Amino acid sequence: MYAIIETGGKQYRVSEGDVIKVEKLGVTEGGFTFDKVMALSNDAGFKAGAPYIDGASVSATVLGEGKAKKVIVYKYKAKKGFHKKKGHRQPYTMLKIDSING
């Protein structure tokens, strides 16, 4: 059984027991419920939403927040002496998928 959910402008294929990293949700502890379920596959078959499935949800437990590895952004212009170096670490929330309801 799996579901495709949407959060943070991205889509994730999740099953029960999966641990995923999503864009920072601003929730540090407790549970979280996704109601934007785009597709659902179980023993009864496959069901796709238009764009979402009514009444379907995915429950998850927040494991913590963190930052991803540093990405270096380096800009320069040849023969002009222009150099600019910048680093970025994207914040994320780590979730454990508990149940898929639908």
Shape: elongated
The Cα radius of gyration reads 19 Å
Main sheet strand line-up: 2-1-5-6
The pLDDT mean sits at 94
Number of helices: 0
Please tally the β strands and state the result: 10
Sketch the major β-sheet. Answer: 4 strands, antiparallel
Our count of domains comes out at 1
Strand content: over 45%
The proportion of residues forming helix, as a percent range, comes to under 10%
Give the SSE string.
EEEEEEEEEE
**Low-pLDDT windows of residues:** none
Question: Could you characterize the architecture of this molecule?
Answer:
The structure is a single chain. The protein is mainly β and 102 residues long. The protein has no helices and 10 strands. The protein has one domain. The strands form 3 sheets. Strands 2-1-5-6 form a 4-stranded antiparallel beta sheet, with no helix packed on it. Strands 3-10-7-4 form a 4-stranded antiparallel beta sheet, with no helix packed on it. The chain has a two-stranded antiparallel sheet with strand order 8-9.
